[in-house]
Amino acid sequence: MGIAAARRMHEPLDDRAFDVLFREARTYNAWLDKPVEDGQLRQLYDLMKWAPTSANSNPVRLVFIRTERARQRLLPALAAGNIQKVLTAPVTAIIAYDVKFFEKMPKLFPHNPRMRDMYANAPELVEVTARRNSSLQGAYFILAARSLGLDCGPLSGFDNAKVDDEFFGAGRECEGCDQEFFPEGHVKSNFLCNVGYGDPASLLPRLPRLEFEEACTLL
Amino acid sequence: MGIAAARRMHEPLDDRAFDVLFREARTYNAWLDKPVEDGQLRQLYDLMKWAPTSANSNPVRLVFIRTERARQRLLPALAAGNIQKVLTAPVTAIIAYDVKFFEKMPKLFPHNPRMRDMYANAPELVEVTARRNSSLQGAYFILAARSLGLDCGPLSGFDNAKVDDEFFGAGRECEGCDQEFFPEGHVKSNFLCNVGYGDPASLLPRLPRLEFEEACTLL
Lengths: 219, 219
Description:
The structure is a homodimer of 219-residue chains. With 219 residues, chain A is α+β, with helices and mostly antiparallel strands. Chain A has helices spanning 3-9, 15-23, 38-48, 68-74, 80-88, 105-108, 114-120, 123-147, 160-168, 212-215, and strands at residues 60-65, 91-98, 151-155, 187-196, 216-218. Chain A is globular and about 55 Å long. β5 of chain A pairs parallel with β1 of chain B.
């Protein structure tokens, strides 16, 4: 990047961007009757993928549930209060992580071949890294969706083990199940995120946030 | 929000926003000689605080290290490869989480007083919730900083226990240490993030990302 390009990057975005990303964006539980196209999900991934992860590990794996049949498979894992939210959302993403993310490191971190082995030999570090970085990537997902004009409804009220069993073959030997996604039992769910166009009529007043002094300190 | 306001929210942002947030933004390890003002850190928090967390729990706590004296306290915890990066950054944020975040829930989730007790009685859920949501908030931090024209350099190569001991009084009784931040030993570090104006001359070519088909599936 040249000096002029860097200078443009150092100009703040405008008020509309701050509103769309943060100040006016809301979590939605009810949706307008307006579909989300597969092309938009590809655009979303093509934005979020660029944001940073530890050693470029990119552990997130995403399952986009768009069909009624796939949605039905998710329902038994949901907390009661979340069933209606998922039933009515155009798309529900399972934000998951691959505990064998390091197998992609020869592609993602090609200048240091030892990085793969460092992770392969440290299962605790793998779990911490995969959870932290798939959470970061889940947040990139939410803000990338908003930047594309979509609304989100993230959910963590569900049974992770049931989702992992149903969608990721947790604990199963997987001969003959290679038509399913990530069949070898090494992907785990982190959280869910409904995606669509939120119905503004469904919004309640906004909840408060912590003041700077409650959450931050300057040293 | 009215229908017209919602319609404006459903318009995508423009190419410059996509570039600043995702496509052209980079992780920096070297910085231009240009300070970051405290007012910018307050602006940053005032954007990121609006993005979603589980039950509005907002577990993140941020320590902004700006002075040489505070920076020296951080150095012994850093991996060797990260010392120079922190020494030269205008600001280093400790992205941390409060395992007693639920004590703020009467303010943050006032319509359901049982939420505080639900967390207070479930220490495992507290740890998972605090880690996941402080990671989400760490990602909101990174993208809010970029939206303000700042660059980031997130780091997880450090000794969390040393940081928690040095800055958060981990394991110590805290009578008489109430001049320090979060003195009661219930805040833990998640990751670090340098903040400043990145030096474009320091950039190496960008590392690859996974293709949509490697990281995502449509069901």
